[in-house]
Structures are given as C-alpha cells and as structure tokens.
Fold this sequence. Notes:
Blueprint: H1 32-39, E1 48-50, H2 57-63, E2 71-73, H3 81-92, H4 98-106, H5 110-147, H6 157-181
Antiparallel strand pairs: 1-2
Amino acid sequence: TYDEEGNCMVTAVQDVQPGEALTVSLGNPSNPTPIFAKYGFLPEDCTNIFCKAVHLLDEIEILGYDFKDLLFSAETGDIAPKVWDLFLYTMLRDDANGDQFLAACLSEDEATKQQFHGQYFQYTLQALKTHVDSILDDVDRLSMKAQSYDLNTHPRVPVILAHNDLVKRTFINVKAQLDAMG
C-alpha cells in the first residue's frame, strides 16, 4: 500500500534484519516465458526451463505436477524425471495400466513407476522426441516471423528472439540427450 505522501508501505512475512536486502520475485525462474511475457526481459541465469508441454495442462494437473517439476536443463539437456512421467501417463491414461501408473505417480511409488518406464521406454522416448522436434520447428517458424517485423513498430523483437534462442539451444541439447538414448 501507499501512504498520502506516496511512500510504499510493505509488511514482511518474516523478520528482516537492518541492512538486509529486500527482493521481489517476478516469478519462477525455471520457466522464463511468463517472466518474459509480463516484464519484457529474460533472466540471465536461466539454467532450466519448462518443457513447453502446455498442450498437456490437464494431465499436469491430474498428476499434481507444476511447471517447476517439468524442466529441461538449458546447459546439458537433462530431462527431469517428472517429464518422463508426464509423457508416459499421457500415453497410458486411456489404457488399462493408466490408473495404476497414475496411482504410482501420486503416491511417489518409484519402484512401480520404474517398472512402467522400463516397459514403455521406447514409446515414451519417441513421444518426447516428437514433442522436442515440434517445439524446435515452432521456434524456427516464430523466429523467422519475428525477424520480418520492423523494429520501429515492434521494439521487443530482439527480446523475443533472445527467448526463442534460449528455447532452441535448450531443446537442441535435449534432442541430443534423447538421440543418444536410441
């Protein structure tokens, strides 16, 4: 809130020591896209990004996962385990095994989850490869479109291209990981 003189009044939820820095969270740094969309910049130290499976929002909710659980490493292309769960559940949800796999995910029964992952690995791998290729195609297409805009009327194009470049580099690293698996 603000007082009559325009001073900002803040209430801390924990004790603050004299001289201690106060910070504001602009969002989850593991998913820079909303930060970029709302504030117009990208965090410089983004080490992980959301796997961009926005088409699976219903499944993400059913599994009780969050964007911060579904990450790709920007530097190495490592894939968070819950990304594998998400793509496998998407394939199994209408199958007789879907309920059992969902129960294993919800109860964090890693042994059962690993049995399913072992049994369906090649299918999950292919689903992830298809997803990654699709995102890479989308990023290329959207970057080409953004490059066609006049910077005088679209001054955010350089930031858009920087975001797309981060996504592309990350997904190329993920693709390399997936290709090495088969």
